[in-house]
C-alpha cells in the first residue's frame, strides 16, 4: 500500500487549502482513512477520519468546522479541505489507511489504529 499526499504549501492566515492523498490499493473502499499532523517539536496529532464509504466522519475538536474530510473511492483519493487556516495549523500533514478488518474501527484518533502512512505534505501558515 502506497499513500502519496499533495497540496501542502505556504499560505497566509485565513486562506484555504485542499490536501489530497492518492492510495495505490486494489479496493480503496476496504480502508478507513484518516489525516494526522505533526508540527516541529510536537507529537503527532489526529485531525479527522472517514468511513469506508465516506458517509461518516470523525473530527478532532480543534477543527471546529474549519476542516472537512472526504473521499472519492472511484479515484482512490482522500481529501482534506482546510478553511480559515491559522498559524497554529502549520505542520506536516499525513494520511493514513486502516484495514477494514480492524476491530477498532475507522472512528478513532489513535495513530496506532492505522496500518499504512504516507510521507506527508507540508502546510505552512504565515500570520
Give the % helix.
under 10%
**Overall spatial form:** globular
Mean pLDDT: 96
* Rg calculated over all Cα atoms: 14 Å
Spans of 5+ residues with little confidence (pLDDT < 50)? Answer: none
Structure class: mainly beta
Helix count, DSSP H or I runs of 4 or more residues: 0
Tell me the major beta sheet.
7 strands, mixed
Helix-strand pattern, N to C?
EEEEEEEEEEE
Measure the end-to-end span.
Answer: 37 Å
Count of DSSP strands:
11
Task: Quote the beta fraction.
Answer: over 45%
What does this structure look like?
With 127 residues, the chain is mainly beta. Helices cover 0% and strands 49% of the residues. Strands 2, 4, 5, 6, 9, 10 and 11 form a seven-stranded mixed β-sheet that branches. A four-stranded antiparallel β-sheet has the order 1-3-8-7, with no helix packed on it. Strand 5 and strand 6 form a beta hairpin. The protein is globular. The termini are far apart. The model has no long low-confidence stretch (mean pLDDT 96).
Attribute tags:
0% helix, 7-stranded mixed β-sheet, 4-stranded antiparallel β-sheet, 49% strand, mainly beta, 11 strands, single chain
Short description:
The protein is an all-beta fold. The chain contains no helices and eleven strands. 0% of the residues lie in helices and 49% in strands.
Strand and helix layout:
Elements: E1 2-6, E2 10-12, E3 17-24, E4 31-38, E5 45-50, E6 57-59, E7 67-72, E8 77-82, E9 91-99, E10 116-117, E11 121-126
Parallel strand pairs: 2-11
Antiparallel strand pairs: 1-3, 3-8, 4-5, 4-9, 5-6, 7-8, 9-10, 9-11
